[in-house]
Design a protein that fits this description.
Strand content: 15-25%
Number of strands: 15
Radius of gyration: 23 Å
Pfam families: Peripla_BP_6
Bound molecules: P-hydroxybenzoic acid
Family: Belongs to the leucine-binding protein family.
Structural class: alpha/beta
Protein name: ABC transporter substrate-binding protein
Keywords: Signal
Shape: globular
InterPro entries: BCAA_transport, Leu-bd, Peripla_BP_I
Helix content: 40-55%
Length: 390
């Protein structure tokens, strides 16, 4: 009898303990941020984590009465790891939102988990058009390759470029860039004599660049993911491609602000189309760049950082709007249709597609005060992902 009472008391205490803890636990709002912090895509992880932490430092860690907890996990950009980590974050940590996704295969690996668990997944980096169609719980704060590639295909033929060889990383975003650039360029009367694809993992650009040299097009159009641009630029210079009269053009991934300043003079004059330059002259961007650099030992933010920063804003605003109640569906509903001023310019989360609508800029690498920057010289406003109309 005595023993039973003790047991009952213990059970009651445990229950009380649990319910005593419950409010505190419930009060925490967890963001599971999965990024490549090591390996080939590590610069993406470093940029996005720094941007997310800057957002929290600027905007506080309490929203709608909830304490924000950022849980960062390194997937080394291997999609099996991304999936395993997402599962663990949803099941064990009970995260309210999943975010990050350094490369397309990672985002696609996590999409079914977002759907099954009704957890919003904010894609801050990966940029293949079809990603948002892989789950109704995906919202994107980065960009898409079709969105930025078309502008280059319109600019090039008006600027003396009639033949182009394309060179892309052989996976989702590269195939999107190749298709949307070359179709539009051909529509504009240009010729694409060859389309080259290099492996994503440990690419050796040398044999491809040799081939381009032999073909001698007016320009080489390049897409490689953030972090790989410096290697392309270096080998382009070493092979004397520029001296042979071949211009380098591409999406802004190749003149990535994370690496641009170390690329040297071979990068000067390279024209790219993209949604973000650290040199964007708005007051909002100047503040963002200054505060990011101050908090990160002078690291210059790149387009990945902006995807992370704006992704955090989308999550914070959704939590504010839904009053911290209602779970994944309420959050998702409050993410759709958000309009705000990003460091990149005005942006809008299209409620139908859950993809980002934004300005695309034409930019040329120039030296200003001894530093290399992507200097914007033209803009196409409010560009939707053209991949969605197919
Ligand atoms: C992607 O894998 O979707 C990706 C990664 C890096 C980029 C662009 C796209 O710069």
């Amino acid at each position: 009898m005595h023993k039973r009472t003790l047991l009952q008391a213990a059970a009651a205490a445990a229950l009380l303990g649990a319910s005593g803890l419950a409010p505190a636990q419930d009060n925490v709002f967890k963001i599971g941020l999965i990024l490549p912090m090591t390996g080939q895509q590590a610069t993406t992880g470093r940029q996005i984590e720094a941007a997310a932490r800057l957002w929290m430092a600027q905007n506080g860690d309490t929203v709608a009465g909830r304490k924000i907890q950022l849980i960062v996990r390194d997937d080394t950009s291997l999609p099996d790891q991304t999936r395993r980590l997402a599962q663990e974050l949803v099941v064990n940590e009970k995260v309210n939102v999943l975010a990050g996704m350094g490369i397309t295969p990672s985002a696609l690996a996590v999409a079914p988990i977002a759907t099954q668990s009704k957890t919003p997944l904010v894609v801050m980096a990966a940029a293949t058009s079809s990603i948002t169609e892989a789950s109704p719980y995906i919202v994107r704060s980065s960009f898409t390759l079709p969105q930025v590639s078309v502008a280059m295909a319109d600019w090039a033929p008006k600027n003396g470029i009639k033949t182009v060889v394309t060179l892309v990383s052989d996976y989702g975003p590269g195939l999107d860039a190749e298709k949307y650039f070359s179709e539009r360029f051909a529509f504009n009367g240009g010729k694409v004599p060859e389309k080259l694809r290099v492996p994503l993992r440990n690419p050796d650009f040398a044999p491809f660049l040799q081939k381009v040299r032999d073909l001698k097009p007016d320009a080489l159009f390049v897409f490689v993911p953030s972090g790989a641009g410096a290697a392309v630029m270096k080998q382009f210079g070493e092979r004397g491609m520029d001296k042979a009269g071949i211009r380098l053009i591409g999406t802004g991934d190749v003149t990535d602000d994370d690496q641009l300043n170390d690329m040297g003079d071979v990068a000067l004059g390279v024209v790219t189309s993209h949604h973000y330059s650290a040199f964007h002259p708005s007051p909002a961007n100047k503040k963002f760049v200054a505060e990011f650099m101050k908090a990160n030992k002078n690291l210059r933010p790149n387009f990945m950082a902006v995807g992370g920063y704006d992704g955090m804003r989308v999550i914070y605003e959704a939590l504010k709007k839904s009053g911290g109640k209602g779970g994944g569906d309420a959050l998702l509903a409050a993410m759709k249709g958000q309009i705000f001023e990003s460091p990149r310019g005005p942006v809008f989360i299209d409620a139908q597609t859950r993809d980002i609508v934004q300005n695309v800029y034409l930019r040329k690498v120039e030296k200003k005060d001894g530093q290399l920057w992507n200097v914007e010289f033209d803009v196409i406003k409010d560009v939707k992902d053209p991949g969605k109309s197919k």
